[in-house]
């Protein structure tokens, strides 16, 4: 029985198995050379943080400030836009967009920096 179970494991390889050594003589394993393009964890983390940020934006900012911050930083489904693009869309000057953005970011900073507040 033991030999049959070991035979089944004969084709298995550990990702920590040494396959070579580098130029400095350090062991090189499969885990060192195998890469993964899997970004599911990062994508999920970004989605959760974006949703939390948008919630705070809606709680703290006026509608105009919300539109500018969401537009400037591409939150939600909106792509990021320049101050000039937002100014043209809203029919106001670029410098006014800049002042509103600065004020809104200060409000958000003050909210996040309150004692006992945890962003994520």
Structural topology:
Elements (H helix, E strand, L loop, with lengths): L1 H7 L9 E4 L5 E3 H4 L6 H21 L2 H11 L9 H8 L3 H19 L8
Antiparallel strand pairs: 1-2
- Stretches where pLDDT falls below 50 for ≥5 residues? none
Question: What is the oligomer described by this structure?
Answer: single chain
Helix content: 55-70%
Helix-strand sequence: HEEHHHHH
Estimated share of beta-strand residues = 5-15%
Structural class: mainly alpha
Biggest pleated sheet? 2 strands, antiparallel
Number of strands: 2
What is the CA-CA span between the terminal residues?
52 Å
Average pLDDT metric = 84
| Strands side by side in the biggest sheet | 1-2
Shape: elongated
Query: What is the tally of helical segments?
Result: 6
| Radius of gyration (Å) | 26 Å
Question: Keywords, please?
Answer:
single chain; 120 residues; mainly alpha; two-stranded antiparallel ribbon; 6 helices; 2 strands; elongated
Can you give a write-up of this model?
The protein is mainly alpha-helical and 120 residues long. 58% of the residues lie in helices and 6% in strands. The chain has 6 helices and 2 strands; from the N terminus they run αββααααα. A two-stranded antiparallel ribbon has the order 1-2. β1 and β2 form a beta hairpin. α4 packs across α6 and α5 packs across α6. The chain is elongated.
